[in-house]
Structures are given as structure tokens and as C-alpha cells.
Here is the input.
Amino acid sequence: MSDPTTPEYAAGRDAADPLAGLRDRFVGSETSLVYFDGNSLGRPLRATLDRLDAFVRDEWGGRLIRGWDEGWFDLPLTLGDDLARVLLGAAPGQTVIGDSTTVLLYKLIRAGVDAQLAADPGRTEIVIDRDNFPTDRYVVEGVAAERGLTVRWVDVELAGGVTPDLVRAAVGPATGLAVLSQVAYRSSHVADAATITEIVHDAGGLVLWDLCHSAGAVDVALDAWGADLAVGCTYKYLNGGPGSPAYCYVAARHQDRLTQPIQGWMGHADPFAMGPGYRPAPGMRRYVSGTPAVVGMLAMRDMLALVEEAGMAAVRDKARALTTYAVELFDAWLQELGVTLGSPRDPFQRGGHITLHHPAMRAVTAALWDQDVIPDYRDPDGLRVGLSPLSTSFEEVRRGLEAVRDTLVKVGA
Here is the structure.
């Protein structure tokens, strides 16, 4: 059997990878830096260099304010439809881009619980797991306090995530909304979103799915799941750049029923009338609040085009292959050093990253950064290896985990 720890093995995997040639399209791919943080901030595409330059010269510099009439005004909706088609499994007219993840979470959580309370005053609980991303938990706590609701906490295993059985035990006649992540940010556990959505619906609740760690790395099928609401960011696997705007999905059946709480001029039915009083626009336009971040949406257009070219099925296969290879190297090199795997072993229950636990991992992460090996650290004692499928090679995984091994030996000495 081939030895997965050898450079020859990794080179063979790269030679057989049908997506390997796409890596060259990313800025910095030619350097020796090992990037294990694509699940926090994706590498930029070389095509984006030309797009940004052309935008400044031709659209912004050349067309100036005419750009709003020539496409900028509708960009949150048109690009939202592109995102929905390529990555979200959603029909047009249900996705809009704008604001930060936190702001969109607030909008949709408030809108969801208010609609539920209006229909049934007994729907006083928001269900969320204790290991969900901090922003999700903090916004849920804030909305619950604001609206006099109760947070129903779900306890999960740190190396796992929410399961149908856990959700079934948490929901009931008081459930208004469940806020859950498809891929757990710490462990990479992939939730059974279709089954969980059905369970919450059977209890009379709505579900909001956080897609920050899933869209672009795992299969998402919002319409097929029967999802109600979803929010995600664009600077991880969508490579939109630092601070690029988030996106939200509202199923068509809910759009006119829900009232989003941040009433801005761009969500008005006639924004340029600038008259008294707020009248929401029909459809997804009503979920826009202020002026959209046009520059912040430019880079993700290139990544969406690249994912569409590669095919999401192939991207998902590459994510499974990369994380499986990382687990093989963990078995060969790190387990004997006292490192434990904080992610599922089943590649079909795992997203685009794995987490490795050891008491020295905070120090190891800092030392690795000094060597141009870039993972990130998550408490408790977790080094997270993020493997963005289109920009990461098997040889990069091998060199990076070899550096983790060698650094752990030095730090622990």
C-alpha cells in the first residue's frame, strides 16, 4: 500500500486530481506558503485583480453615478440569484446580498420570531445549540431579551454537532424558530438539514440555517430541504475578500409574511420617491436596508464563475478527498503525539475542515504562522485545518501537517 506521508504520494494525488489546474488561478498559489485558513478567508482569484482595476477605471471612474441605473442598484438581487443557482439549491427571487452576517441574522431571527408570535403567541422559544458560532448565539440571546422570549439550548458533542434526535428532543409547541448551522464551525460536523428541517416543521417552528461554513464546500439544497430562512458569509469559500457582504435566503412563501426590522430606504417600494412613511418593496428587495456594498460584491462574481465551471459535485468530492487525506496524515503522524481528532471520521459527515486537539495547539499555531504555515486556533486546544477545495493541493496538505508534527514535537520538548 502506498505511504500517504511521502511527497510522491501527494504528488500522485495532485496529478490525478481533475481540479488541480484551477489552483493556479489563485493569487499566491505559486508560493511555498501553506494556507489552512481558507474556511475563514479565501485566497483571491487572479481574475479579480483585473476586475477591480476595470471597475475603478471604467465603471466607477467612467460611468460614475450612472452605474446605479446600469446595474449597481439591482446587483444584490441579480448576484443573489447567481449565488442561489450555483451554490444554494434555490430558485431565483429568494436570495439577496448585503449587510454583514450578524446584521442579516438579526433581521431574519427578529422577522421569524415576530411572525410566529403573531400567528401563535405561545411560540416563545428559540432553539439553538450551545456550540453554534458565537455571533449566532449572541444574536439569539439579544433577540430573545428584546422580545421576551426563552432560549432553548441544545447540548452537543464538541467533536460532533446537531443531530435529528437532539433537535427532536428540543422542539415542541413553544418552538418559534430554530437557528442551526449546517456545518459546525469547530468540528466540521455536517447536519442532516433535510431531516432536521422536517422535524422543526412538524413541531410548528421555522428553521434558519447558517451556511457560513458550508456553501462552497458541501452540498446545499435549500428548496429541496423546505428551508425557511438562511444566512451565510461570502469571504470564506466564496472568496469575496475581507468584509465582503453576507447573503440571506427567504423562501418565497414567507417573503411577504415576514417583516424585517431594519427599515431602510433601499428596501422601500419606491426608494427614490423619498416620501413619508415606509412601505416595503415586494419580494426580496424588502430585505435590503441601506446602500449595497458594490465594491464588496465584485470578487465573489469570479469565484461563482469558477465553481460553476468546476461543478459543485466535483468541488464537494475534492473537499472530501482533502479532508480524508488530512485524517490519514493525522493517523500516521499526530495520533501518537497525543493529538485527538475533533471532527467526524466519516467524510460524508464532515465539511471542508478538520480540527486537531492538543494542549499545546495555541503555541503550535503561533509558531506555525512564523513559518508561513497558516491554520487557525479555536478553544479548547483546537488547531483548525481549513482546506478550501479549489485553492488547496494535496502536497500543501502534506507539507502543512508535517510542519504541525515537527512544531508540536519542538513545542512539547
